[in-house]
Target: CRE-SRU-19 protein
Amino acid sequence: MVNRELGLVINGNSNYSNYTFDPLTFSCLLSFGPLIYIIPTFVVIIRVIRTFYRNIIGKKDKNFNRNVFTVLVLSNFSSLGFFFSDLIVIRAPSTGIMTSWCYRQEPNRFLNIVFQAQAYFNYCTMLYPVLFSVVRLVITYVPNRHDEVNAKILKFAIPAIQIYPLLLLLHMIPALGVCRQHSSPYSFGAVYVHFINSWRGIMNAPITVINSAVWLTTCLILNFILYRKLRKLKTVSLSQSQTHQNIRNRIIEVSLSLTTLAMLFAYATNLVFLGSFMIDYDIATYLVVFRPFGYDLELCVVPWVFYLTHPAFRKKSDSRIVVNSNRKPPLSV
Model:
C-alpha cells in the first residue's frame, strides 16, 4: 500500500513488526527541542490570560478594552490547540515513539479525529488575525462607540470561527486515520498521522493553502486601510501638543501593529510547507525538517510581542489603559 506523495501506511505492515524506538536520534531532538522556547512562551500566555481575567472577570479596570484582549486570548488558545494536536500528529510520531503502536492498529476513527483536531485549530488560527484587524479598524473609525460595535461583532464572529473549520472538514467524516512513513531525510520508523478513504479522495492541503491565501489577502487589505487611517491621524496629532495620553496611545498603536504582523506567520507557514508539497514533493520532504519551527512562530512570537510591548503589562501605576472620549480614536486596549 504505497503512495509516493503520502508515504507508506505502516498499520499492519510486517516490516515494522520488530521496530525498536531509539530516543537518541536526530528526530527526537528535532521534535522535542522546541520545548526550550515553548515552556517560557506558556508562562507568557498564562500572564496574558491572568491580565485578561483580572480586568474582565475581576473588573478592576472599567476602561480596559475587553474586545482586543478577547480576540488575542482566543487566538492563543487556538495556537495552543494546534501545538498539542500537532505534537500527536507530526512531532511525536516522527521520533518513532508511536511506530510500534501504530503497527498494531488497524486504520481507525481515533487517529482520524486526532488529525482533524490539528486541521481544525489550524483553520481557527487563520481567522483570528482577520478578526483582530477588524476590531482595530472599528476602534479607529468608530472611536466613540467602538466597544459597543466590537461587542456585537464578536458575538457573531467568535461562534462563526468555531463552526467554519467544521464545514471544511466534512469530507473527513468517512475517513480513517493511519500512520505513514516519513520520506528522506527521516529514518526508518519516523512516521506521522494521516488518513485514507476521505469523501471522493479529497485532500486537506489544497483547501488549507487556498484558505491561507484568501485570509492572508483579506488581512493585508484590512491592515492597509488601517495604516492609511492611522497615518492621517498621526499627521494631525503631530500638529498638536504631545500629551502623555497621546504618547501612550502611540505606544499601544505600535504594539498592536507588531502583534498583527506576528499573527501573519500562520499564513506564511501554511503557504510555504503545504504549498511545497503540492508543487514538488521531493523538495518538500526536506522542508519538513524545519516545519516545527515554522509553525511555532505564531505561537511564540504573538504573545511575546504583545506582552513585551503593550503598556497593560507594565507594573507602573500610570500604565493603566484609559479609553479616550475625544474624537480621535483610542488605540488602547
User: Anything to note?
Assistant: The longest helix spans residues 204-238.
